[in-house]
Every structure is written in C-alpha cells, then in structure tokens.
C-alpha cells in the first residue's frame, strides 16, 4: 500500500495534468461523435453546386419577400390616401386593414410563448430508428396545432408566419416552411393570452407529446415567455387562381 | 528541456480541447444545415425554392401593377372603388372570411381516423397548392385544427362522424395525383389504417362557406 502511495507521489505534476487533459479530450471526442451519430454526412462533388444554387435561391427568396412586403405597405398607404371624405371609401379602407390583419399580412406583437425544438443528443440504441431522435415536420406541426388549441392567435416558425396555406415539409433533417428553408433550432413563436403557457402545459395532448418525443427519444423541447413577442407578416403569395371569392361577404362571416 | 516539452504537450492538448468544446457547443445549438442534405434532397430543395420564387415573382408583378394603378388614380384625383373591392375580396377569399367557389377535389373519409392523420392530409393538400380547404363544410383558416383520437375527432367544435368530407379548391388533377400516387398519402393511409376508406373525387365546382371563427386579434397588436 505504502509502495503504491509512494509511486503515485513520485509522478510529476505535468503528467497528472496531461492525463486529466487527455481524459477530457477523449470524453469530448466521444461526445462529438455521438452528437453527430443520427446524421449522415455527404461528400459527393455534385452537392457543391447544388448547395450554392440553394443558397442563391434562398437569398433571392428573401429579397422577393421583402419587395412584396414593401409593395403591400405602399398599396395600403395609397389606398388609405384616396378621397378620404367618401364614407364608402373610408369603410373599404377600414375593412381592408382588418382583412390584412386577419390574413396575417401585417405583423403582430404581444404576449405569448416561444417553444424551441431540437434534435435529441441521446445515443441511438441498437434496433431503434435514428430518425425518431430527430425533429420532424410532424413535431413542429404538432406544436403549432397545440398552440392554436391553447388559444394562440398568431404563430410563426423561425420567422415564417403560419397562415391557412402554410405547409411544412421535411427535407433531409431540415424543414421547408412556406417553401422557405429552415434549419435547427426550430423556434415556434405564438402570440396569445398571458396564460398561454399554462393552457398549453395542462393540455393532455401536450403532455403526451412531451412524453412521446421528449422523454422517449430525447427531443429537446424548451420554452420562454418573453414580455413581448413579434410574429412577422406573411410575405408569400395570396393569389387565387382556382378559387373565386363571392362578390360580398356572407352575413355569417365575422 | 523536459519541462518545455511537457508544457508544449499540455498546450497542444489544451488547443485541441478548446476546438472540440466549441464544436460540441455549436453542434448542440445549431442543426447541420445544407451540408447534411443528400444530392437528392438538395435537388428537391432547389426545385421547391424555384417554384416558390416563381410564385413570389408573380405576386410581386401583380402588386406592382396594383400600385401603379392606384398611383395613377390618385394623380387624377380619383379613387378606384373597384380596385379596393377587388383587393378586399381577394384577401378575404384567401383568408377564409369570405365564401369562395372553384374546381378542386373532395376526399371522403370513412372509418376511425385520428385527428393528426387528417392534419397530415391537410398539410399534403396545402403543399399541393390548395387555395381553400374545408372539413365537413367547416372552412379552415389559420388556427383551425382537426383534433381528437380516432372515432372522436372534431374541427372548430364540430364533431366529425364516421364519414366526413375534406374539400380542397385548387388544381384537381395535381391534387388528385399528389394524394393517389404510389407511396402517397392514400397509400400510406391504406397501409397504416386498413379500416379507413378514403375516396378522392375531382369536382368541377365546390362552394365553400366562410369561416365563423373571429380572426381579429385580441392579444396581439398590429405593427402598422
């Protein structure tokens, strides 16, 4: 026993430091490899130009959306400036403003909740499906639906406003929201009553979602309740090519 | 000499530790992005972005014309009541607060289907370009959710029976093709829910009512 203690004491301190550092190094390498385990890394040469094209198209899309938002603002200003004395025009402008808010063509801010979803960092046990450990469009759609059911009145995903026409699609481990490319973390912002979080967290469906995705597969679900949340305006197309609107609103419409 | 080499070793290990720590922290907070997509997925992404950008260009062109017409009318001291009405009808029709009519498809579902599956179907129809949707003649708007367990689902407080209909206004050929293609939504439903029958019928005219849901925000304030 005394021999062992004497041998330990005889080890130079730099060797102890190096040993600890190497231990930490090994731990970090293992953690890094494990965090990338569910993902596949591709290295084919044909991907390079495709990535460049995708980035270019996404940049064009961002520009187009900004131009559309500017034009909508310009049109709203022009419409509100026209012959303001006419009662009919005033009423139309009031209706137009209300319609734009209802459509999500104007951004909103207010109380609410932010929910963030990220892939699991848990190791995938043998026999399990690795995709179960990744956030999918179904997870994000479920969170959106649960927010609506809890009383949210405006929702966005990574800054993309969710409207009646919004589709979410899986593309690899990423998402398309309103056909805009979104990468993790997925941040779902919901504007609603001040007690939106308690309404959500007490719903049975939300508890089931947390158990099924968070506890079972380690999907990271986090919350924040900032004092003020901004949900941006929808910047996509509202063209109707197949649907013809009625000449006037039905009396039952709000 | 020995002391210098040991210090160098520790310094080297510390540098590697630092790099790995940063990598680990970054991988915890951000996804892998485009680098993690396969060539096929990237091709799909490029196709989606192209289609969306074309639609956005069309929208921009239409808005530019509208802005020019309004500017010209204002310069003449006129107000285009017709244009204001057309704009209002388009926005309200798109949002769901005004009834709309058009060609599309009817999807008749019979059997115990959970709400999430109907939501999957609706997401597919939206992805296919459906311009207006209803379930059991209840118009869907932002905030409408078909929820509940199989056999007890509802939308906007309207219970859905054993048989109900989803209507979608849009390109009936492409919507039908999207749902009925091999490996598509209908095939998946047949495989996972054999007790559920789904029939897709293209129709020339669907009359879709407006929503009864109030869409004026009471908690959010518009950014004007």
Structure description:
The complex is a heterodimer of chains A (254) and B (224). With 254 residues, chain A is of the alpha+beta class. Chain A has two domains: 54 residues; 124 residues, Protein of unknown function DUF881 (Alpha-Beta Plaits), CATH 3.30.70.1880. Chain A has seven helices and eleven strands. In chain A, the strands form three sheets. Chain A has a five-stranded antiparallel beta sheet with strand order 4-3-8-2-9, with helices on one face. In chain A, a hairpin with a 2-residue loop joins strand 5 and strand 6. In chain A, helix 5 runs antiparallel to helix 7. Chain A starts with a helix and ends in a 9-residue tail after the last strand. Chain B is an alpha+beta fold and 224 residues long. Chain B has three domains: 28 residues; 43 residues; 108 residues, Protein of unknown function DUF881 (Alpha-Beta Plaits, 2-Layer Sandwich). In chain B, the strands form two sheets. Chain B has a five-stranded antiparallel beta sheet with strand order 3-2-7-1-8. The longest helix of chain B has 37 residues. Chains A and B meet through helix 2, helix 3, helix 4, strand 1 and helix 5 of A and helix 1, helix 2, helix 3, strand 1 and helix 4 of B.
Summarize the structure.
The complex is a heterodimer of chains A (254) and B (224). With 254 residues, chain A is of the alpha+beta class.
Secondary structure elements and their pairing?
The complex is a heterodimer of chains A (254) and B (224).
Chain A: H1 2-9, H2 13-35, H3 47-81, H4 87-103, E1 108-110, E2 112-118, H5 137-150, E3 154-157, E4 160-161, E5 168-171, E6 174-177, E7 180-182, E8 186-191, H6 196-201, H7 204-217, E9 220-224, E10 229-231, E11 244-245
Antiparallel strand pairs in A: 1-10, 2-8, 2-9, 3-4, 3-8, 5-6, 6-7
Helix pairs in contact in A: 5-7
Chain B: H1 2-29, H2 39-75, H3 81-95, E1 100-110, H4 115-127, E2 132-135, E3 138-139, E4 146-147, E5 154-155, E6 158-159, E7 163-169, H5 172-180, H6 185-192, E8 197-208, E9 220-222
Antiparallel strand pairs in B: 1-7, 1-8, 2-3, 2-7, 4-5, 5-6
């Amino acid at each position: 026993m005394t021999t062992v203690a004497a041998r330990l004491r005889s080890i130079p301190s730099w060797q102890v430091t190096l040993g600890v550092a190497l231990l930490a190094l090994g731990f970090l390498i293992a953690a890094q490899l494990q965090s990338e385990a569910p993902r596949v890394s591709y290295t084919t040469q044909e991907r390079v130009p495709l990535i460049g094209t995708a980035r270019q198209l996404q940049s064009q899309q961002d520009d187009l959306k900004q131009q559309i938002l500017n034009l909508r603002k310009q049109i709203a200003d022009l419409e509100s400036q026209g012959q303001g004395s006419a009662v009919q025009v005033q009423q139309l402008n009031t209706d137009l403003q209300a319609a734009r808010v209802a459509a999500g063509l104007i951004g909103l801010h207010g109380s609410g909740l932010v929910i963030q979803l990220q892939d699991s960092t848990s190791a995938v046990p043998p026999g399990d499906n690795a995709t179960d450990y990744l956030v999918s469009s179904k997870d994000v759609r479920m969170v959106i639906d649960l927010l609506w059911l809890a009383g949210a009145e405006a929702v966005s995903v990574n800054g993309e406003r969710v409207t009646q026409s919004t589709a979410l699609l899986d593309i690899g481990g990423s998402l398309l929201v309103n056909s805009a490319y979104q990468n993790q973390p997925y941040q779902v912002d919901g504007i609603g009553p001040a007690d939106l979080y308690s309404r959500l967290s007490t719903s049975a469906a939300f508890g089931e979602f947390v158990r099924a995705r968070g506890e079972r597969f380690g999907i990271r679900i986090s919350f924040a309740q900032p004092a003020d949340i901004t949900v941006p305006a929808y910047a996509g197309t509202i063209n109707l090519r197949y649907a013809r609107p009625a000449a006037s609103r039905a009396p039952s419409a709000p | 000499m020995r002391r210098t080499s040991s210090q160098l070793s520790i310094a080297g290990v510390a540098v590697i530790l630092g790099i790995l720590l940063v990598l680990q922290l970054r991988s915890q907070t951000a996804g892998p992005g485009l680098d993690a997509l396969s060539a096929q997925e990237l091709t799909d992404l490029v196709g989606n972005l192209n289609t969306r950008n074309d639609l956005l260009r069309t929208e921009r062109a239409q808005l530019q014309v509208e802005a020019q017409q309004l500017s010209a009318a204002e310069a003449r001291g006129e107000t285009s009541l017709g244009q204001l009405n057309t704009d209002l009808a388009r926005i309200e029709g798109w949002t769901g607060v005004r009834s709309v009519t058009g060609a599309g498809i009817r999807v008749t579902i019979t059997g115990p289907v959970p709400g999430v599956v109907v939501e999957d179907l609706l997401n597919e129809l939206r992805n296919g370009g459906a311009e207006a949707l209803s379930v059991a003649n209840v118009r869907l708007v932002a905030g409408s959710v078909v929820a509940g367990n199989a056999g007890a689902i509802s939308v906007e407080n309207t219970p859905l029976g054993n048989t109900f209909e989803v209507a979608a206004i849009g390109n009936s050929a492409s919507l039908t093709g999207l749902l009925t293609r091999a490996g598509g939504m209908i095939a998946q439903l047949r495989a996972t829910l054999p007790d559920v029958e789904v029939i897709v019928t293209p129709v020339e005219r669907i009359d879709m009512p407006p929503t009864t849901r109030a869409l004026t925000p009471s908690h959010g304030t518009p950014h004007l």
